Amino acid sequence: MKEREVKVLGIDLKAVEERLIQVGAELIKDEDQINWVFQAAALETKEGEIGYLRLRSTHCLTTDQWTHELTLKMKESAEGLRVYEERTSQISDPATVIEMLDLLGHPLRYRGEKHRKSYRWNGIDFEMDQWDQETYPQPYLEIEVQSEQDLVVALQLLEIPKEMVSTKSIGDLRKEWREKHVNQPNNSAKSAGNRA
Fold first, then answer.
1. To 5 degrees, how large is the angle CA 83–CA 112–CA 174?
2. What is the predicted pLDDT for the residue at 185?
3. Would the N or C end of the chain have less CB density within 10 A of its end CB?
4. Residue 18 phi/psi, 5° resolution?
5. CA quadruple 57, 35, 95, 83: dihedral, nearest 10
6. CA 141, 144, 150: angle at the middle one, nearest 5?
7. Residue among 83, 122, 118, 90 at smallest CA distance from 2
8. What tens digit of pLDDT does each residue of 37-60 get?
9. Domains by residue range for the chain, with CATH
10. Residue 11 and residue 142 in contact, taking contact as beta carbons nearer than 8 Å
11. What's phi and psi for 94, nearest 5 deg?
């Protein structure tokens, strides 16, 4: 399955939600997630990361149900839209999968918790994400579309300027944040204690 998306940084998620409700968007997700991202040498190049391996446990807040899935994402493009080829499989025992991946040479890179609330409007998904403070403290909007024209429509709907749009992955954003705010000389002790 192909996933086409962008992130919108520095946005007021409450205002976004109010606008989506106003135009009749449908609430499709309200969930808490636990995400584990693993090291995989085959997905790392001199030019950067070409994909990632993730395990996710999701608690649906409307049904009180838990689901668990293992996903491999391979990046195809980051021009205009971030495009991933995504392969996902449902699993029943996250702890065992984590142990198996470690034994196969894919140790945990980081674990993060996230709240996600998603709305769908005219086939466009608007996903409002807030990670825990340790993983990435800034909320953002993820817009998942089928085409670049859908993205134009979505940005117009929410009156979002292009300069707020990013194709960076959460890994890229975490790295930038840590370089700016954590890995400073006066924060070296804190940095060592907080590395995932």
1. 60
2. 56
3. N
4. -60, -40
5. 90
6. 110
7. 83
8. 999 998 888 877 888 999 999 999
9. 2-191 (2.40.320.10)
10. no
11. -55, -40
- Start-end of H helices in the chain: 13-22, 94-103, 148-158, 170-177, 188-194
The structure's pTM equals 0.87
What are the structure tokens assigned to 130, written together?
Answer: 């807030």
Q: Which amino acid is at 160?
A: I
69's tokens: 């899935």
What whole-number distance in Å separates Cα of residue 146 and Cα of residue 5? 9
Contact status, residue 60 vs residue 43, Cβ threshold 8 Å = no
- Partnered with residue 26 across adjacent β-strands are 120
Q: 170: closest CA among 26, 58, 36?
A: 36
Instruction: Give 115-169 pLDDT, tens digit per residue.
Output: 999 999 999 999 999 999 999 999 999 999 999 999 999 999 999 999 999 999 8
Q: How far apart are CA 63 and CA 116, in angstroms?
A: 15
Q: Name which of 145, 127, 113 is nearest 27 in CA terms.
A: 127
CB contact set of 163 (below 8 Å; sequence gap of 6+):
none
